[in-house]
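re: that chain from earlier
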Amino acid sequence: MNTFIESELYIETNSTNRVVVLVKHIAMKLNNKANSIIKNHMYLSVGAGLIPLPLVDFVAVSGIQLDMINKLAELYEKDFEKNQAKAIVSALGGAGLARLAAGMTKAVPVIGSVLGGVTMSVLSGASTYAVGEVFKNHFAEGGSLNDLNIEKFKAFYNEKFEQGKAMAKDMESEHKANEEADSSDVVDAEFEEAIVESRSETEDKIEQLKELAKLKEDKVITEAEFKKMKKELLG
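^ sequence. v structure.
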């Protein structure tokens, strides 16, 4: 039995109104959990779309979408079959998948560049969002992989695909901001390390100069030798 349902069984069911409230409450909790699954996988897809290698980004997004469908199936207690899910996604995607595939034909330097004003990462995220919404709604209606009507959901998929673009753009900006922050942290760390290293080298040279001065003072080395060694030490 679904864990969400188990957690609500304490509610008495001798009232029709109570049953209705219980069913709506469970449906809402399932929907919220499904939305979280979709959002997380959408974010991963946007990140995968930023990978600057042909084919790798497309394969990564496909794997992310299949994992999302599997988790949605577990949530709604439906059977999952990888090849069957893959076939449904391909049939549903149509234009969306064609745009993703078009991104694979680009040369490495321009991966992630604009495709009709939309980047590869945005298309990846939008596609994942649309796929997730289709399966969420189908499973919530009691459907399974075996009875998903492609024609019924194609228009719905396209609608969600367009909605997903705006969401994916925000996620893309977030990804890039995080990358810049990480890069800045690395630069700061390297700069601090360079300062410490430079300070250490300076202190070492000062100590060596003191030793040379002491040797000259003790007449172990001549003035000329002192000047020569000092010049070499200071570069």
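The chain is about 75% helix and 0% strand.
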